[in-house]
Amino acid sequence: MTIVLPPPHLSQEAKDDWNVLQTSTPSPSAFDPAQTELLPEPVRRWVLHTIAPGTPLRRAVVLSTHGMIKLDMWREFRAEQTLWPMEGYVWSAAIRAGLLTVRGFDRYHAGAGQMRWRLLDAFPVMSETGADVTRSAAGRLAGEFVLAPAAALDPRVRWKSLDDRHALASIPVGEEDHEVTLAIAPDGRLEHVTMSRWGAPDHGPYRQHLFEVTCEDETSFDGFTLPAGLRGSWDGDEFIRFIVDDALFR
Q1: Cβ atoms within 10 A of the Cβ of 107, count?
Q2: Which residues pair with 66 in a beta bridge?
Q3: What is the pLDDT of residues 79-99, one digit of tens each?
Q4: Which end of the chain has fewer beta carbons closer than 10 Å to its terminal beta carbon, N or C?
Q5: In terms of Cα–Cα distance, which of 104, 103, 131 is closest to 115?
Q6: Model pTM greater than 0.85?
Q7: Ramachandran angles phi, psi of 152, nearest 5°
């Protein structure tokens, strides 16, 4: 299976995480719709919609995306990401800042989170680690499990139906179980992902905030149907919009 090389601007530790998190699933079983029989009805609808029968249940994904991110203003970016639900992620991006480019990464793996961004690959723009960054990154990882849908069948994920269109997933990451609510259309399409996530989007002290992702359109790769476009917000303030260009399931 194709190996996706880590972006060159990653630190050595981030490169090591990148490679670990795209480890191929050994002998993945083929998806059988009967595996959804014990899931709450909204989740069952979503899983049947998002995973085609017979699809190998690969646990991880490498994503290519592009879009806009709101920093001091809206700026274009392109990103690559390795994602293994409940284990970790490395999100590596290049962000246009006028005629210049800021490159860097956010990551979480083995109980530690980090953000590191540099202008022209040399001048530090942001570098953060520590308990708050780690807790926020763990929340992000919990919410992004929907981009590797085989995670929905992982026995560590505990499901609860809220009504005929909403379900709550309890997802263990780090030292917490993170509660993630999915809004699912009658035809099984994923509409919204919401959760209370630790963060500091207002640049104040870290605390719990409402984090929401709106899913738009759909695209399919290797038997998995994903949202094609996503918009993320903190406390109702949209800060990122992106399109999924490619997904390589591992």
Answers
A1: 26
A2: 78, 243
A3: 999 999 999 999 999 999 888
A4: N
A5: 104
A6: yes
A7: -60, -25
